[in-house]
């Protein structure tokens, strides 16, 4: 249970030698942490903000093979991604769920349709499954009533899967803690500890929660792994080395299902440049994305631009003309950064999504890759470091990273609420149902999340600020207009006491949250 006493205890326990220090609490760092903890290593994960604060809460919510990477002949990336997707569906207790995608076929894109049919055959062969099919016009329209009908011939359906990305990160970290690791958020690395010869032997960490004393600590470890994604070059700057990354921004729009009704995801081509985009049903909303643009200034927050908003709206209006949407229909936006290795490709979309890792004076950095292959990335970088670890352990990407809860009653196996919460909470699902107030065990209006999840997260999931709760735990801020402001009285009644906030604290947090949402999760100013 990641509450205030856990934070105090974890901070006080930092004064010891570690086998591995992982910098970064996104999915890459979480996977490394979890895999190392399973081997019995003394592993510590530190995150400067909230867990999953950066890229790993702002993805396209997919665990997928990356069918559009076939265009760039990134066959190895697609192959390993598809096989990891299949493992995740089997092992995640429902957190990762299969999702059908349809590529609509029109009279004017028959060439692209033929290419897609060839692509999905390769896709399924790599998965050792035959899941694709061709659809006629009538069935395509029935599944995608919002799709334009003029010139529609049919569609090509294939399978991928979707996930709540930030919940995946938290689940992997929580199970890593159960395996024996230590992790703490709001603990920023402000400096690398080095020997006189310049070899990295640890980090200096500063408390950013405002709750801990002393506020800084020197921590030493046999291996220090920089898994900070787009921020990797900022950590590496302490070594006076050249940047290696090309951060690329991907932005999304969220609409209600009433505005764009979908029963499956849509792979669509932008009318301006023929670039592949997705429209995805997620949490009873419709998400449109993603862009792929260079992002030169990597700060704490990332926001969509006016040009991206117009670009994505144009794609939505072209694909779904019978359900025309405008800026006023946008519930929220979000933008994340991809930590792509710079190969000086002519356009961002042509950069490889392959991952890489390297050692610079004792600091090991891993970058590139994608959420789907986080276990492959973890095994690769840990095997790269194994000679510096006790007993030189061997790591395998097929090792499970979840501890599975067992249903205590037969009816739980078919209860959608139990299945959803088992995927999100793992072993804690039993405690959740035992302690939850029955009055709060129903969905928050039109989204599947339960009111009781707010109280649980406030008590047990390392929440420091209101945006942690509403943007990364129970995602009202993305799924309701005005960041869920209309629901704040009830949110307050459920979380203020568990978080130990005074009335003044609540008002300060609410003002802070509104500022963050308006500036980074809505339309650009």
Q: What's this model, at a glance?
A:
The protein has 525 residues and is of the alpha+beta class. The protein has 16 helices and 18 strands.
Report on the structure:
With 525 residues, the chain is of the alpha+beta class. It is 34% helix and 23% strand. It has 16 helices and 18 strands. Strand 9 and strand 10 form a beta hairpin. 50% of the residues are buried. The mean pLDDT is 95.
Which helices and strands, and how do they pair?
Layout: H1 4-12, E1 18-23, H2 27-38, E2 43-46, E3 62-63, H3 75-91, E4 97-106, H4 110-127, E5 133-136, H5 137-143, E6 152-162, H6 165-178, E7 182-184, E8 187-194, E9 200-207, E10 216-226, H7 232-236, E11 245-256, E12 265-269, E13 276-282, E14 285-289, E15 293-294, H8 306-319, E16 332-341, E17 355-360, E18 363-368, H9 374-385, H10 416-425, H11 429-435, H12 451-460, H13 466-473, H14 476-479, H15 488-499, H16 503-520
Helix pairs in contact: 2-6, 2-9, 10-11, 12-15
The largest pleated sheet is described as:
10 strands, mixed
Counted beta strands: 18
Overall mean confidence score, pLDDT: 95
Poorly predicted regions are: none
Termini Cα gap: 39 Å
Q: With helices defined by DSSP (H or I, 4 residues minimum), what is the helix count?
A: 16
Rounded to an integer in angstroms, the radius of gyration calculated over CA atoms is 23 Å
| Fraction of residues in helix | 25-40%
Shape: globular
DSSP strand (E) fraction?
Answer: 15-25%
Sheet/helix structural class: alpha+beta
């Amino acid at each position: 249970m990641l509450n205030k006493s856990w934070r105090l205890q974890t901070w006080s326990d930092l004064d010891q030698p570690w086998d591995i220090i992982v910098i970064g609490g996104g999915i890459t760092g979480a996977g490394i942490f979890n895999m190392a903890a399973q081997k019995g290593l003394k592993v510590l994960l530190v995150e400067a903000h909230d867990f999953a604060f950066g890229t790993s809460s702002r993805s396209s919510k997919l665990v997928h093979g990356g069918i559009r990477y076939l265009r760039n002949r990134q066959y190895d990336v697609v192959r390993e991604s598809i096989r990891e997707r299949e493992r995740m569906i089997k092992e995640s207790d429902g957190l990762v769920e299969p999702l059908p995608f349809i590529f609509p076929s029109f009279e004017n894109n028959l060439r692209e349709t033929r290419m897609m049919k060839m692509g999905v055959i390769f896709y399924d062969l790599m998965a050792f499954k035959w899941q694709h099919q061709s659809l006629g016009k009538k069935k395509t329209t029935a599944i995608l009533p919002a799709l334009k009908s003029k010139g529609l011939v049919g569609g090509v359906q294939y399978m991928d899967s979707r996930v709540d990305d930030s919940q995946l990160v938290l689940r992997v970290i929580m199970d890593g803690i159960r395996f024996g690791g230590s992790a703490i958020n709001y603990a920023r690395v402000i400096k690398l500890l080095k020997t006189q010869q310049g070899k990295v032997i640890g980090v200096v960490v500063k408390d950013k929660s405002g709750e801990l004393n002393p506020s800084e600590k020197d921590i030493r470890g046999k291996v220090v792994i920089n898994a900070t994604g787009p921020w990797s070059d900022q950590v590496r700057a302490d070594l006076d080395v050249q940047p290696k990354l090309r951060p690329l921004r991907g932005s999304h729009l969220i609409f209600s299902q009433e505005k764009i009704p979908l029963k499956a995801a849509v792979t669509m081509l932008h009318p301006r440049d023929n670039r592949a985009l997705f429209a995805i049903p997620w949490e009873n909303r419709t998400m449109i994305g993603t862009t792929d643009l260079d992002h030169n200034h990597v700060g704490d927050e990332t926001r969509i631009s006016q040009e991206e908003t117009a670009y994505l709206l144009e794609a939505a209006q072209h694909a779904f003309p019978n359900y025309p949407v405008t800026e006023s229909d946008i519930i929220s936006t979000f933008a994340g950064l991809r930590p792509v290795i710079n190969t000086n490709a002519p356009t961002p979309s042509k950069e490889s999504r392959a991952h890489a890792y390297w050692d610079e004076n004792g600091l090991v950095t891993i970058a590139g890759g994608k959420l789907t292959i986080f276990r492959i990335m973890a095994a690769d970088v840990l095997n790269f470091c194994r000679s510096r670890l006790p007993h030189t352990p061997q790591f395998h990407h097929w090792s499970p990273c979840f501890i599975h809860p067992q249903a205590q009653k037969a009816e739980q196996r078919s209860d959608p609420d139990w299945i959803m919460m088992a995927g999100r909470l793992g072993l804690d699902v039993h405690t959740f149902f035992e302690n939850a107030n029955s009055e709060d065990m129903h969905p928050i209006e039109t989204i599947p999340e339960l009111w009781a999840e707010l109280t649980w997260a406030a008590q047990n999931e390392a929440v420091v600020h209101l945006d942690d709760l509403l943007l990364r735990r129970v995602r009202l801020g993305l799924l309701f207009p005005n960041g869920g402001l209309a629901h704040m009285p009830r949110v307050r009644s459920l979380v203020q006491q568990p978080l130990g906030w005074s009335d003044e604290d609540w008002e300060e947090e609410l003002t802070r949250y509104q500022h963050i949402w308006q500036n980074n999760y809505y339309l650009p100013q």
